[in-house]
Amino acid sequence: MLKNVVIPHSYTLIKRGKTSLLLKEEYKDILLRQGIENVEGFINKRKEKATYLAGRTSHPSIPINGDTRMVIRRYSHGGLFRKFTRNLYLFGSRSFQELALTEEIRSRGIPTIQPVVAIHQSTFFSFYRAYLLSLEISHSRDLIQFFKDLNTHPSRTALSLKRKIIRSAALLLRQFHQAGFYHGDLQLKNILVADGRVFLIDFDRSYRKRTLSIKERIDNLLRLNRSAEKWVRLGLPITWRDRLRFFSIYAGDDIEIRAGMKKAFRTYSLRTIMHRIGWAFGM
Predict the structure, then answer these.
(1) How many other C-beta atoms lie within 10 A of the C-beta of residue 277?
(2) For the whole model, what pTM was predicted?
(3) 20 beta partners
């Protein structure tokens, strides 16, 4: 199942019993000395020093060397599968694939996390558990928390910062798409802000092609828009002007993408209206 694993430059594949690890050379020795192959034991020994980051499940962030902290992500199912399989997967090597893609994204100058190790633990038959460990981006907040924090002290400075981050996020996503990458879970939680910079994270089920079609780019944008709409309904201070500004900056002078957006959002808006009518009449 790991025969087709891509090993990026500066990584080493190590097997310890039923556990396979794809380790970044720089951190290999220290992590192996600390027993990283038993990742749950590795986490438990550092519980007192751990902080937890929000996600589908909480992600522990632990110190590994002085002030350097590492975020540990356990892969887990969402939706119906979560109840039955929880953190077990069948076939494939999700954490290895995501690490390789993340390194490819980094190589294109797109700001994201620095992976440290991907772990694949075989259980029974072809089932496995997966983990991805990466360096923590210090003082980062996802876009949801960023917008909430700005709203607590409204001012001209806060508005200017909000517009700056919206612009940076739009340009970053355009760069991401123009490089041929499609994000499998593009939502506000997967865009981080730290020290005025914007980062894309979480590339599970993402992929890269030579060129993304207009439809793929629009589909990704609509996914992000649905995430924004969800949080707006929960009180997040994002206005329709904010979203219009984002999409306008993303499109730039590209006539084709502007036409595609206009057509897609016309259909999207009509579908949303019909859904709301259905809800009003109990359909």
Answers:
(1) 10
(2) 0.89
(3) 15, 120
